[in-house]
Amino acid sequence: MAVAGQPNSGKSTVFNMLTGARQHVANYPGVTMEKKSGTYRYQDMRIELVDLPGTYSLTSYSLEERIARDFILHERPALVVDIVDASNLRRNLYLTFQFLEMGISVVIDLNMMDVAEKRGLEIDAKELSRRIGVPVVSSIGNRGKGKEELRKAIFEAYKGRGAFKPFRIDYGPLEPSLKVLEKQLLDNAHLSASYPLRWLAVKLMEGDSEAQRLTEKHLEDPKETLGYVEAKREEFASQHNEAPERFIATRRYQSADEITKHSVRKKRETFLTLSDTIDKIVCNRFLGPVILAATIYALFELSIVQGYKITAHTWPLLAGFKGFVASILPSPGFLEEPFLRSLTLGIVDGVIAVLNYVPIFLILFALIAILEDTGYMARVAFILDRIFRHFGLHGQSTLPLILGGVFVGGCAIPGVMACRAIKDERARMATILIVPLMNCMAKTPLYVLLVSIFFVQHKGMVMFFIATITIIIALAVAKALTITVLRRKEGAPFILEMPPYHLPTVQGVLRRTVERTWLFVRKVITIIIAIAVIVYILISFPGLSEQRKAHYQTRAGGAIATFFEGIEGSRYAPLFEVPGLMKFMRYWEGYKKARMGAKGKETKSAVSEKFQSRNPEFFTIVKPGRDKEARKVNTGFKRLVSLRKEILREKREEIISSSYLGQLGRTMEPFTRFAGFNWRINIALLSSFAAKESSVATLGAIYQPTEGGEKTLDVRMREKERGYTSLHALAIMIFMVMYPPCIPTLIMVKLESGSLRWMFFAALYPTLLGLMMAILVFSGGNLLGLSGIEAMVGFYAVAIAITALMALIRREPKIDFGRR
Amino acid sequence: MTLDEIRPGGQCRIKGVSVTGLLGQRLLDMGFIHGAQIKVIRNAPLTDPVEIQLGEYQVSIRHDEARYVEVEPL
């Protein structure tokens, strides 16, 4: 059975109420629309429900309507549970009639009875049922009221199908033509067996493209029928001075009006509902934008800032998981790390890097579910549509852009996911393509790193530049895409229902939050694992030559030999007989790590006790106290540890720079030089393709700390790149602004746009544009002898000018407005 | 007169919709039909779009699109 209804009728709450937790989410074949289905038992029957997209009508004009219509037409559900907003009966019945016309059994659920009640409406369900000729029950979905009655009605309607005589709209002057058409169609065995003929006839008279296609496909001589339709349509239009489709819609509305008049009684006049009062404030010319800004700020503050704080508590759990995995893997040697170990840890690193964001997503999705359920999202679109429209976007583009991190600290993945809500296909695609340009959380570390090295005096100003330049560039890009590659996409008029405000329910919000987070985690984790493997291979192969390996072995051997020489004759020497050395090394590292994590005297002594009881002999070396001989061994071992670190670092650096990724970075250097990127930066930028947070991690690996790592990365980078100026840094940051979406985002782009071509486009255009801008800034800045700050101000001015110009381009809307 | 010309606070009755195709159909489907009463509630903070009361419900529409709704003021 199908659950259908108009938008804002509370369809999903009723669907959830009926099916409970037994739900399954998939996509409708060939499109990106989510298809939810669920099952429940009633008496001896197992009932499967499919949640159809909410639509106002069933024409061929929009994807949702086509999906809902095709499902009923081709899948032939046993019946349609039509969820009707009780406070909006007339408009909702308009859709009900279209279901009935398709010859399908219908059960009407009058939902949101409480809202109707508040508006002073009294609905006579019995009278309604009598007039429409289908069962009618009432419910309050978000309070779970009416579940049993509805289940019972569905069950009985199914058992007693055929007993009902549904209402049939009288199309008056069109009826003779409809009869002739039905008769012509009846002659075709396939059509008459598969499709409701009256529906097909009405649709043909409406001039509906799908009905025409079906006729052409199945009739042997479609010309005769279609010719008849065309002639009759023209005849009707000239006689009645009105297009037939308009007449048909009007008849449906008139019938709905008639039925509503007899079954709804207005008990009292309501003048100003609470919803209207709220709107007076929320949509006020001055207060509206202020409230909107405050809401966005609160959303950002609560999810990104506070959520980030929570990750500080959840991170140890994830790190603990990694530690656990590390402990069951083969342990590392003095220089060699077993392949299985490093690969597995690489995957685990990738996975926990994503899982780390889960607290942020939980809060974010919960807040968004609340905003959606209250009805505020429609007001946001209302307030901002004017601005976005100039750039080919839509008022509904606001949410995806906020999620992506309009100013700073979002994530493109939920941003791209949120584009589903945009009903205008062209604006939706444009939004999907620009969301990845926003400043996601993972871009931020690189900005912070570069700003703290190269723009010490202008920190605030540069961060402001980054926070605002993204949206400025993104708007210009959106417009450019709209008038070029997206030119042919379907646009949609902005006619947006402003539903009355609702109090969201805890259950509803929680359900959606968990659902979306799970969707995100499931999709991303599987991909991350694959990516981690690829990145691992790119960064560690082809590996070192035998000669270089031997070189490092010799150095390591030398260091070990020196250590043993130093402790020769000591009574502690037997402790280190190989393999005792590595055993002690792990003990030593474990102790140092535990000490570093321990804060306060008590925990510190607890750590000491733990390690002492684990191995008292080792502990004397780790903490020699007054034991002279132990102190000597301790000093010798310290030197060995630092030598090992140095050799490991040099080795890793050599592996990275000679790896496939390193070779690529070097190959690109002659070209990227114009943008100011050397091969080291190239590698960092290349590796961030997998996930942007790795840009800083890779830089960290390249600029490895010497001597135990007491210097921070910015100091190390400054030392290594003495020739670097703020202009270099600016070029890197501008490239980062335009950086192509990370792979998980690209996967999401593919899922939401439904095509690989768009995915590649989403990866390619920012790369090229970013490189162009970086080259322009760096080479241009060099030529003019500008400092980083001067170049930044210049770039900012140019970007604003271009975006403003783009806004002025007025293009005839490609929407088929079909002016008469 | 067309709907975009009615000021906030004004009321009118629909005489017809002067557009076909997607926009025309959408307007019909949402209840912009001959004889329906409209009350213009408010303009958005940046003047466009405009929010109106159409029968039992409220809907916002761009001025560009409201231009195709022919009305008579009440």
Indicate the topology:
The complex is a heterodimer of chains A (820) and B (74).
Chain A: E1 2-5, H1 11-19, E2 23-27, E3 34-42, E4 45-51, H2 63-75, E5 80-85, H3 89-101, E6 106-111, H4 113-118, E7 121-123, H5 125-132, E8 136-138, H6 147-159, H7 175-186, H8 189-194, H9 197-206, H10 209-218, H11 222-240, H12 244-263, E9 264-266, H13 274-282, H14 287-328, H15 339-355, H16 358-374, H17 376-389, H18 398-404, H19 412-418, H20 425-434, H21 444-454, H22 459-483, E10 495-497, H23 506-540, H24 546-567, H25 580-597, H26 601-614, H27 616-622, H28 628-658, H29 660-672, H30 679-687, H31 694-702, H32 713-720, H33 726-737, H34 743-753, H35 756-784, H36 788-808
Helix pairs in contact in A: 3-12, 5-12, 7-9, 7-11, 9-10, 10-11, 14-15, 14-16, 15-23, 16-23, 18-19, 19-34, 20-22, 21-22, 21-32, 21-33, 22-36, 24-28, 25-26, 26-27, 29-30, 30-31, 33-35, 33-36, 34-35
Chain B: E1 11-17, H1 21-29, E2 37-43, E3 50-54, E4 57-61, H2 63-66, E5 69-73
Antiparallel strand pairs in B: 1-2, 1-5, 2-3, 3-4
The helix/strand series of chain B, from N terminus to C terminus, equals EHEEEHE
CATH topology of chain B: SH3 type barrels
Q: Can you give the mean pLDDT of chain A?
A: 84
Beta-strand fraction estimate of chain A: 5-15%
- The number of helical elements of chain A comes to 36
Count of the separate structural domains of chain B: 1
Radius of gyration of chain B: 11 Å
User: What do the pLDDT scores of chain B average to?
Assistant: 92
Description of the molecule:
The complex is a heterodimer of chains A (820) and B (74). Chain A starts with a strand and ends in a 12-residue tail after the last helix. In chain A, strands 2-3-4-1-5-6-8 form a seven-stranded mixed beta sheet, sandwiched between helices. A two-stranded antiparallel ribbon of chain A has the order 7-9. By secondary structure, chain A is mainly alpha-helical. In chain A, 65% of the residues lie in helices and 6% in strands. Among the domains of chain A are: 2-159, P-loop containing nucleotide triphosphate hydrolases (Rossmann fold, 3-Layer(aba) Sandwich); 173-240, Helix Hairpins, CATH 1.10.287.1770; 546-654, no CATH class. Chain A has 36 helices and ten strands. Mean pLDDT of chain A is 84; it is low at 704-710 and 814-820. With 74 residues, chain B is α+β, with helices and mostly antiparallel strands. Chain B has a single domain (3-73), classed as SH3 type barrels (Roll). Helix content of chain B is 18%, strand content 39%. Chain B has helices at 21-29, 63-66, and strands at 11-17, 37-43, 50-54, 57-61, 69-73. Chain B has a five-stranded antiparallel beta sheet. The longest helix of chain B has 9 residues, at 21-29. The termini of chain B are close together. β10 of chain A pairs antiparallel with β4 of chain B.
